[in-house]
């Protein structure tokens, strides 16, 4: 096991490039199964979730070589359609494999997905979408068996704009016979990136980024090359670290429109934001608490709820955060309280009373984004903090401590 040791009260200064987006890479790696051939994906982050997805693809028969920031995925010999249970439990995103395996082999067997413990992670919307394009699905003994004599276009309406279910539906529909419409689709930028990748493979998709996505089924897809979009959640986390430490941080390779809701809130809080086409800079100001409600894109992203809650612990006044997306996404609160934060959680709402300063403590990362928020708190706190269970953080933040060190942070990784 490993931990971070952080000495706080260092103002972060400087600029950095962020890696490719975890939540764009995972569905795109799954989508590479839709054809036989060698696809090249650039700007793939070095994080544990990518290694887990790589392990699954290799178990299914793919050959994968990493060359620097690129993954070379040869899916010629993919023949298996069953995903091992231990790998399904390790990562929620393994559910993305249903669409591509159904699309290519008309069959898939998997157990219920695992992932971060941020709430029940049902897949009813995924199943409803796949049934709409002709899949017959049986759920028995903890396993899901899906198969289709053939896939035919359908009209899918989501009760909730689920990111994963939208992506699974797109990947199942691209090789279906006829047209598919996805209504109340998720609008996250990562879905645009998946649409771009699939269209490069020869698919005919339009509408990603809006709530209605249209897919004209084709008979065959081809391997292609693609560069993953930058990780907006990683960018938002570093910008908040800059604001929290009264520093001056620039992210060099991020389009501001991916983070409009976040930048708007940071300005409301008192941070000074400057942007250009591919660049965001945050300079500290006097931080004051505001209210936030997490929402599907383009609303405030749930993945930045934990980091901004950390910021609120040392902002003037009281803040209220309502987490509307996941049921159990305040696991960072108990750990932050050990650092002197004053937070009360009532159901899906957290009420944060700002204090003048946090103090360093020994804490443990309960999940990926909560872990990131604890590091931010430690960077701002007086004294030394130890953050255990950094394997959670390594799931989604590439070389987190190295990037923070490049901004002047006093953070080291240690074996426990
Ligand atoms: C994706 O998860 C992201 N993961 C999550 O990022 C992100 O928080 C989430 O979208 C919301 O933006 C990846 O892209 C790999 P959802 P996903 O389906 O697809 C309910 C991170 O930290 N729901 O949009 O699982 C569900 O319970 C991770 O990087 C159903 O009810 O999210 C949740 O309450 C965490 N039935 C809500 O929808 C379903 O069939 C949002 O889930 C599917 C989802």
Automatic annotation (TrEMBL):
Reaction catalyzed: phosphoenolpyruvate + UDP-N-acetyl-alpha-D-glucosamine = UDP-N-acetyl-3-O-(1-carboxyvinyl)-alpha-D-glucosamine + phosphate
Localization annotation: Cytoplasm
Gene Ontology MF annotations: UDP-N-acetylglucosamine 1-carboxyvinyltransferase activity
Domain Enolpyruvate transferase: 7-404
A biological process from GO: cell division
GO cellular component term, pick one: cytoplasm
Alphabetized UniProt keyword annotations: Cell cycle, Cell division, Cell shape, Cell wall biogenesis/degradation, Cytoplasm, Peptidoglycan synthesis, Transferase
Annotated EC: 2.5.1.7
Pathway membership, UniProt: Cell wall biogenesis; peptidoglycan biosynthesis
Top-rank EC class of the record's enzyme: transferase
InterPro entries per the UniProt record, alphabetical: Enolpyruvate_Tfrase_dom, Enolpyruvate_Tfrase_sf, MurA_subfamily, RNA3'P_cycl/enolpyr_Trfase_a/b, UDP_GlcNAc_COvinyl_MurA
Family the UniProt entry places it in: Belongs to the EPSP synthase family. MurA subfamily.
Protein name: UDP-N-acetylglucosamine 1-carboxyvinyltransferase
Annotated organism of origin: bioreactor metagenome
């Amino acid at each position: 096991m490993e931990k971070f040791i952080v000495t706080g009260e260092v103002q972060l200064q400087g600029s950095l490039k962020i890696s490719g987006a975890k939540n764009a890479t995972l569905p795109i790696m799954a989508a590479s199964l839709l054809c036989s051939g060698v696809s090249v994906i650039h700007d793939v982050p070095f994080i544990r979730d990518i290694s887990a997805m790589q392990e699954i693809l290799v178990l299914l028969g793919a050959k994968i070589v990493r060359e620097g920031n690129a993954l070379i995925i040869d899916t010629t010999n993919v023949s298996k359609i069953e995903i091992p249970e231990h790998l399904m439990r390790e990562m929620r995103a393994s559910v993305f494999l249903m669409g591509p395996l159904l699309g290519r082999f008309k069959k898939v067997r998997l157990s219920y997905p695992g992932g971060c413990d941020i709430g029940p992670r049902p897949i009813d919307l995924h199943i409803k979408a796949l049934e709409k394009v002709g899949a017959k699905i049986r759920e028995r003994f903890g396993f899901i068996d899906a198969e289709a004599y053939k896939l035919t276009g359908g009209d899918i309406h989501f009760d909730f704009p689920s990111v994963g279910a939208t992506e699974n539906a797109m990947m199942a529909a691209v090789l279906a016979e006829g047209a598919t419409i996805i209504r109340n689709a998720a609008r996250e930028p990562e879905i645009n990136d998946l649409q771009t990748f699939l269209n490069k493979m020869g698919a005919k998709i339009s509408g990603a980024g809006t709530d209605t996505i249209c897919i004209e089924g084709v008979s065959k897809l081809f391997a292609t090359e693609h560069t993953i979009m930058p990780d907006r959640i990683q960018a938002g986390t570093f910008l908040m670290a800059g604001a929290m430490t009264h520093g001056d941080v620039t992210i060099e390779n991020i389009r501001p429109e991916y983070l409009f809701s976040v930048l708007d809130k940071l300005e409301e809080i008192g941070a000074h934001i400057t942007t250009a086409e591919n660049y965001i800079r945050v300079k500290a100001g006097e931080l004051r608490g505001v209210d936030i409600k997490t929402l599907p894109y383009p609303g405030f992203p749930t993945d930045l709820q934990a980091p901004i809650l950390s910021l609120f612990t040392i902002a003037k006044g009281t803040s209220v955060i309502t987490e509307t997306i996941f049921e159990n996404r305040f696991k960072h609160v108990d750990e932050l309280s050990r650092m002197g934060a004053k937070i009360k959680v009532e159901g899906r709402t957290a009420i944060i009373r700002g204090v003048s300063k946090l103090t360093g403590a020994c804490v443990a990362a309960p999940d990926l984004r909560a872990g990131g928020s604890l590091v931010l708190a430690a960077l701002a706190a007086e004294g030394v903090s130890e953050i255990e269970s950094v394997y959670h953080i390594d799931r989604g933040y590439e070389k987190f401590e190295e990037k923070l060190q490049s901004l002047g942070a006093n953070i080291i990784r240690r074996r426990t």
